[in-house]
Amino acid sequence: MFIGEVVGNAWGQYKHKSLDNRLLLLVRPIDPMTEKPTGEATLCVEGGVGAGPGSIVLVVDEGGAARQIMGDKTAPVRTVICGIVDKVCVGGKEKGYE
Q1: pLDDT, tens digit, for every residue of 42-91?
Q2: What is the number of alpha carbons within 13 Å of residue 15 lying toward its C-beta?
Q3: Among residues 67, 98, 49, which one has the least CA distance to residue 58?
Q4: Distance in angstroms (rounded) separating the CA atoms of residues 31 and 29
Q5: What is the CATH number of the domain that holds 11?
Q6: Count of alpha carbons within 13 Å of 79, Cβ hemisphere only?
């Protein structure tokens, strides 16, 4: 899992049937305390939590768990947004997101 910021949308005219009616979002991993990028953006399936560009999100980055969240064991996915982050606490310091 990682915390990231949704930085964009992706569209595909032809998708696997398990991705019908699912948003595809680009998520860039960030340091949750500084919000500085820690890697390149990756394509994620929006898991039904209402995320969109600008959202700070929790991403599951493992195929079996991703398919379980989607409820489809045949879905060709690895990364799914499974939550929107409101606040993190690291080493006694808190950081909130709006």
Answers
A1: 999 999 999 999 999 999 999 889 988 888 888 899 999 999 999 999 99
A2: 16
A3: 49
A4: 7
A5: 2.40.50.220
A6: 20
Q: Tell me how crowded residue 15 is: count the other CB atoms within 10 A of its CB.
A: 13
37 Cβ contact list (under 8 Å, min separation 6): 28, 29, 30
Q: How many Å apart are CA 76 and CA 74, to the nearest integer?
A: 6
Torsion of CA 40, 27, 44, 78, to 10 degrees: 50
The range of the structural domain enclosing residue 27 comes to 2-96
